[in-house]
Structures are given as structure tokens and as C-alpha cells.
Amino acid sequence: MRAELQAALAEFALCISYGPGRGNCSRISGERQVGVVWIASMAPAQSYHEMVADALLAQPDLLAVARDNALRWLANGAQAADMLRLWDRLLAQAQAGPAGMAELQRILRSAEPECQRLREFAPLAGMIPREQRRQARDLCGYRH
Predict the structure, then answer these.
(1) Which structural domain, as residue segments, surrounds residue 39?
(2) From 32's CA, which of 46, 106, 125, 135 has a CA 20 to 30 Å away?
(3) Residue 125 domain-assigned?
(4) Alpha carbon 43 to chain centroid distance?
(5) Closest CA relative to residue 120, chosen from 84, 91, 90
(6) Please, is 54 exposed, middle or buried when counting C-beta atoms within 10 Å of its C-beta (0-12, 13-18, 19+)?
(7) In a domain, 55, yes or no
(8) 78 close to 122: Cβ distance less than 8 angstroms
């Protein structure tokens, strides 16, 4: 999977810059609500994708939401279709068992450039509540 990820990222060598703080953007701290499950932060601050990783561990059913997003975006002609297909495979593997979930967690939490690049195409809308997304955006160094 790692070689496939690197190949897909190389193929989409678009240079998208979100300004200062890219990769470690969207920092928040405290507790946040994910659906009906409360998750206490282990660290003083977490990135948006770390929050999503925690939500997916607490509620694995959210993987279906992310897969639905990827498939819907593909059906609507979204750009970067290869990246969305790669996300669909990653999410399907995470649904299939612990090894797939571990790989997804690694991608969502890693500071490796290829993981950061892949997260730019993540179909993770709807994973965390609006208020937590707003807090993450407000604490980000870039004005969205």
C-alpha cells in the first residue's frame, strides 16, 4: 500500500499551498463531542485529522460515511479521482480489520509528506461536529 500511495502522490504533484501552518493546521484542545461519544484529548492540542482519527476509533461506523463521500464525489466528477479511489480502498481496508485501521490511523496522524499530501484529498467531511471544526479553523495559522 505504501508504494501505491507514493505513486499516487507523485502522479498528483499539484502544488497547493494553504499558507503558514500547513500540515499542523487546525489545532484545538480540550474535549470534543463525536456523535454521542465524548473523547478526551490525550494531548493539549490536536490537528483536525487527529480528531478525525480519534472519532473513527471511537465510532468505526463513520468509515461508511467517509466511503459514501468518496463515492459520491467520484460520481459527481470530482478532480483527483485516483486519490479518491485510493481513499476508498484505504477506508475499505479499515472496515475490514485492525491492520487496515492501523494504516488509516498512521496516515491521519503522520507528519510524513506523503501522508500530509494524501490528507489534502481526504473524503472526511461529516466526521466531527461543526463546532469542533470551527474551533480548529479559528486556531489555525491560515485564514480560511
Answers:
(1) 2-7+24-139
(2) 106
(3) yes
(4) 18
(5) 84
(6) buried
(7) yes
(8) no
Block means of pLDDT (10 residues each) for the chain, 144 residues, are 56 32 34 35 62 93 96 93 96 97 97 94 90 71 50
101, amino acid identity: M
pTM, full prediction: 0.65
**Residue type (1 letter), 72:** R
Cell output for 103 = 494504516
Q: Rounded to an integer, what distance in angstroms lies between the CA atom of residue 25 and that of residue 12?
A: 21
Closest by CA to 112, choosing from 46, 7, 24, is 24
Q: Is 13 within the bounds of a domain? A: no
Q: Check residue 88 and give its pLDDT.
A: 96
119 occurs within a structural domain:
yes
State residue 133's pLDDT score. Answer: 76
Structural domains in the chain (count)? 1
Buried b (16+ CB within 10 A) or exposed e, 62-86: bbebbbebbbebbeeeeebeebbeb
Between CA 101 and CA 93 the distance in angstroms is 7
Which residue type does 68 have?
D
